[in-house]
Amino acid sequence: MGLVVQKYGGSSVADAEGIKRVAKRIVDAKKNGHQVVVVVSAMGDTTDELIDLAGQVSPIPAGREFDMLLTAGERISMALLAMAIKNLGHEAQSFTGSQAGVITDSVHNKARIIDVTPGRIRTALDEGNIAIVAGFQGVSQDKKDITTLGRGGSDTTAVALAAALDAEVCEIYTDVDGVFTADPRVVPKARKIDRISFEDMLELASSGSKVLLHRCVEYARRYNIPIHVRSSFSGLQGTWVSNEQGDRKVEQAIISGVAHDTSEAKITVVGVPDKPGEAATIFRAIANNEINIDMVVQNVSAASTGLTDISFTLPKAEGRKAIDALEKTKSTIGFESLRYDDQIAKISLVGAGMKTNPGVTAGFFEALSDAGVNIELISTSEIRISVVTRADEVKEAVRAVHSAFGLDSDSDEAVVYGGTGR
Amino acid sequence: MGLVVQKYGGSSVADAEGIKRVAKRIVDAKKNGHQVVVVVSAMGDTTDELIDLAGQVSPIPAGREFDMLLTAGERISMALLAMAIKNLGHEAQSFTGSQAGVITDSVHNKARIIDVTPGRIRTALDEGNIAIVAGFQGVSQDKKDITTLGRGGSDTTAVALAAALDAEVCEIYTDVDGVFTADPRVVPKARKIDRISFEDMLELASSGSKVLLHRCVEYARRYNIPIHVRSSFSGLQGTWVSNEQGDRKVEQAIISGVAHDTSEAKITVVGVPDKPGEAATIFRAIANNEINIDMVVQNVSAASTGLTDISFTLPKAEGRKAIDALEKTKSTIGFESLRYDDQIAKISLVGAGMKTNPGVTAGFFEALSDAGVNIELISTSEIRISVVTRADEVKEAVRAVHSAFGLDSDSDEAVVYGGTGR
């Protein structure tokens, strides 16, 4: 039996009862002969409460101090979890990100992991301890200041530790049973996925699936660490994310799932002269303001005018900043106008082998058409098709696509497309 | 203008408003040209809430993890305070006990400071920052584990940092105006003391005064760091504790104040054979159980029986343990019985020059007698007389003594005893 890294999110350790339940599960893994490293998030709403407090003392909390503040949350949960484990008769020690050797850059509030040097964790394990590590935090390489890893940081901590410790598996415990073929709140017939490749999981994550974040999956893929996403409330098998392709037959498309995302807005730059360098100027203006964009679509220009429209999607929170940045470049670029639309939804179909299989794209569009959903933008990748629709049509659209591709839980099996071309 | 260390307790930073008020006061000190180091406790009831959480997951919280848990409290308050200061336009950085170089032994929950190496604090100050340091915590020298200093630990942190940084003064901010001649809740006419020596303050602290703890005053005396105890709610001068004797005339007794303590119980070992080694056996049994005792009184034995009684006081919380320990030695020692009494109070009169001045002891006993208060035990030191009385007589007794020694705020001046002898 090898080393297992388990990660528990805030909802799993929301109160003393939750902590005791999690402690029991950890001890079970230890009893099964594993060395166990546990990464834990802050309890329930702790982080939100701390953010609220910060807002009360300062409208613009400083990065360094904000990180110092937020990291108190994991300190509380990890110490309590270690106590609860010791109370069950097993040895446990808790470690801050710094003590666990999580070395980051100095970008406060969204630091990136540079290195993991888990010497103290290794020693604690060798001495028979269960090691509890604070998720979401590290220490900066140059200044030795406390840093936080930003959104989804605890999952990344877990995968990074699993890689550094050469773990058998990184188990991500959450309040759902695993990764589903669609959001079960939208599609009641959504099915739990048993196995999914890193690549498909990456596409689902970047298309709106919230179970695992892109960053954590990317890290796991790079170091080839299998992730097992499962519920902390049941003993059921969840979803394995790995570089295995499951039982997919070569050259056949397997649809992994349907993701949707209503957190984005769409900006259309209308009437852009269709000549070299115009698009570059537009996206340089966006990039200079550190705005991350998602889909970008440009259609052929109308021959009569020599003008084209460029549309892109971006997080709603960045909308105002992007519009301001573009307005300033209006005279340079010479576009006609800007349109801003935050009533959109993105629906994505993800699956391996899609590009080399016919009918997937057609089937996707037909399903939307049959449901009366209009498509506003289309974007594709090797293993994903995404469309933008009206926000109020998103649920209907997701259900229609989910059903059309045989993903519903009452279907006999997923639709498999054979052959070539799309 | 030199370096000032300011310490703010939990009641001063109980909420966002308190933190902002404290931030303003800190910035004022900085504007006055001082280098400022601030030691801060956890907000309001945070520590109690964390202790309560620990109790919910484990009946006997482990030392190491308990310290990890509790230190989250200062992490929150110090980060918020730094943010609030930055919001006022001044630079501030917060530091954990470990980052501030507070090196301790490995006794979790009540570690002792071994060394202070404030290199990062010095650098932060030199760069123009206000340095905010977490009180109550350090890092163990051997294992590099987080430790806490126990009760009153933040005051000790402040004095230790003041000593290591060679500060002009260590300001202890609290919710009262300073040290009083008696507890103002018991004696409404109690007066604020302007200046008091380290020695008198030590005696007051060990006699029940709660404003400063013995340990912190002892540290300040050893390194000769003046302490200024003052209110965080007003700009008034508080009480200066230093090695100066104030305006006391040599060879005259100045009464500093009357302290009382109702946290102790009394144990009497009845009928102890009056021969060498009996007392040693009794107190070795107590010491082996790590019980701290306070007053010890043995009277001459009755000639007829050759038996004597030995009484001592100790914290009520240790009473059960002490009785158990003594019962086990009953056959060895051969005493008759044990009496346990937790309805006692200790009243102490503290003042320099007492021993060499007549009438102080007599005046003390007369005041108690006039108030109808019976004395059960008496114990004296160089600068203190303590008596044990019934608990329900304590308020009356304190007021009577306070008044008899001219300490009441409507008295013209404190009574001064001249001459020699007592």
Supply the key terms.
homodimer; disordered C terminus; Aspartokinase (chains A, B); 20 strands; EC 2.7.2.4 (chains A, B); 422 residues; lysine biosynthesis (chains A, B); Carbamate kinase; eight-stranded mixed sheet; amino-acid biosynthesis (chains A, B); alpha/beta; four-stranded mixed sheet; 13 helices; Asp/Glu/Uridylate_kinase (chains A, B)
Please outline the helices and strands.
Two copies of one chain form a homodimer.
Chain A: E1 3-8, H1 16-31, E2 35-40, H2 46-57, H3 63-70, H4 72-87, E3 92-95, E4 102-104, E5 113-116, H5 119-126, E6 130-134, E7 137-140, E8 146-148, H6 153-164, E9 169-174, E10 195-197, H7 198-206, H8 214-223, E11 227-231, E12 239-242, E13 254-261, E14 264-273, H9 278-288, E15 296-298, E16 307-315, H10 319-328, H11 330-333, E17 337-341, E18 344-352, H12 360-370, E19 377-381, E20 384-390, H13 394-404
Helix pairs in contact in A: 1-4, 6-8, 7-8, 12-13
Structure description:
The structure is a homodimer of 422-residue chains. With 422 residues, the first copy, chain A, is α/β, with parallel strands linked by helices. The first copy, chain A, has a domain at 3-175: Acetylglutamate kinase-like (Carbamate kinase, 3-Layer(aba) Sandwich), CATH 3.40.1160. In chain A, 33% of the residues lie in helices and 26% in strands. Chain A has helices at 16-31, 46-57, 63-70, 72-87, 119-126, 153-164, 198-206, 214-223, 278-288, 319-328, 330-333, 360-370, 394-404, and strands at 3-8, 35-40, 92-95, 102-104, 113-116, 130-134, 137-140, 146-148, 169-174, 195-197, 227-231, 239-242, 254-261, 264-273, 296-298, 307-315, 337-341, 344-352, 377-381, 384-390. Chain A has an eight-stranded mixed beta sheet, sandwiched between helices. A four-stranded mixed beta sheet of chain A has the order 5-4-7-8. In chain A, strands 13-18-20-19 form a four-stranded antiparallel beta sheet, with helices on both faces. In chain A, strand 7 and strand 8 (146-148) form a beta hairpin. Chain A is globular. Chain A starts with a strand and ends in an 18-residue tail after the last helix. At the A-B interface, helix 1, helix 2, helix 3, helix 4 and strand 3 of A face helix 1, helix 2, helix 3, helix 4 and strand 3 of B.
